[in-house]
Amino acid sequence: MSNKTMSDEERQRLVNEMRNEEQQRQAGYREQALKLFPHVCGRCTREFEGKKMRELTVHHRDHNHDNNPPDGSNWELLCIYCHDHEHTRGVQEQRDAEGPGGHPGRPSLGHSPFAALGDRFKKPK
Ligand SMILES: [Zn+2]
Ligand SMILES: [Zn+2]
Fold it and tell me: Ligand 2 centre and the CA of 122: distance in Å?
């Protein structure tokens, strides 16, 4: 528990911190989004609470995971099923090339006519 040695241990800690940064960043905006929005899937309108909350994820409207305005304007809460659907319907051909787990970070994929339609169907409460 003593951190007298600043060299290797410290460096290792930095590496770990950087590695965790992405995860923490994601957890961070999820937390924020969950505070901002009702815990309801934006597509199937199911409600989530308790353990089920794990199935509620944050979708980026412009598909840019680095675009995280604090007002939540780029976020949408979707359950994992609708979220998967949201991404696969526009990226089906891409999927074979990238394989599973390859989350498209390129914004160009988000600018499909379907994405625009999705926004139009969204009714303000
Ligand atoms: Zn859903
Ligand atoms: Zn998404």
Answer: 16
Q: Is the pTM here over 0.85, yes or no? A: no
- If you measure from the C-alpha of residue 16 to the centroid of ligand 2, how many angstroms do you get, rounded to a whole number? 26
Six-digit token string for 73: 């304007």
Q: Are 41 and 78 in contact (CB under 8 A)?
A: yes
Q: Which of 31-35, 74-78, 104-108 has the lowest mean pLDDT?
A: 104-108
User: Which residues touch 106 (CB under 8 Å, ≥6 apart)?
Assistant: 63
Cα(22) to ligand 2 centroid in Å equals: 16
Q: Of the candidates 52, 114, 65, which has an alpha carbon nearest to the alpha carbon of residue 86? A: 114
**Continuous H helices in the chain:** 8-36, 80-98, 113-121
Q: Quick one: how far is CA 40 from the chain centroid?
A: 15
Q: Which amino acid is at 42?
A: G
